[in-house]
Structures are given as structure tokens and as C-alpha cells.
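Thread: quick sanity check before group meeting

JM: Hey all, I'm pulling together slides for Thursday and realized we never actually wrote out the predicted structure for the chain we discussed last week. Dropping the sequence here so it's in one place. If anyone has concerns about the input, flag it before I start.
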Amino acid sequence: MASGKNWAKTKKYRDLKNHLEADLLDRGLSGQIYMDKAQEYLDLWCQRQQLLDDIRERGVSVMDPKRGMYVENRSVSMEIQVSRQMLLIFSALGYRDTALCAGTGNEDDKDEL
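JM (edit): ok, ran it. Output follows.
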């Protein structure tokens, strides 16, 4: 990957980490196992950001000098795998269920917000 940015030192990372930890604590999920899963999610988030940086920099296809032709940038398929793993962790921490419940209100409820 071409990107050298340390995403763990960014404000976006700190905000996401603080939000994840606060939300877990609010839901009474303060055990080390939950915090470890949240950290795993954050580590994957950093990897995904680096992969996305690489895709932005080099594109979805890159020149393979041995073959003399364009091939898929491996960052594309790796980003998909990382994103899937993040979704599994997101679901395991209960966020998928929360997101689904939040979207089940009727139209009158939405007007009140």
C-alpha cells in the first residue's frame, strides 16, 4: 500500500473510539471482551482507511510490470474483506440490531426529530 498516514493518530479515529467506548459503557458492555472487540474494529478501521488511500492514489487497476498489463489493485479486494470483517464485529457488538430498530419507527416519529 502506498499510504503512510497513521490513521490511529487522527481526530476521526479518536472520535470513533470515544463514541464506541461510550456507547458500550452506556449499554452496560464494559467488560474487557467488549473493549477488545471494539479495539479490533478500530484496528480494522485503520487498515480500511489505508486501503482506501491506496485505491485513491493508484486507482482500482495497477500496472503489473512482470505481465506488462493492468491488473486489479489488491487493495480493492482486501478492502472488501476488511469491510466484511468490520460488519461482523459491528453486528457482534449489537450495533446492527440497534440500527435496524432505529429505522422501524413510523413517519410521525420522524417528524418529531
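AS: nice. The longest helix spans residues 32-58. Confidence is low (pLDDT under 50) at residues 109-113.
JM: adding both to the slides.
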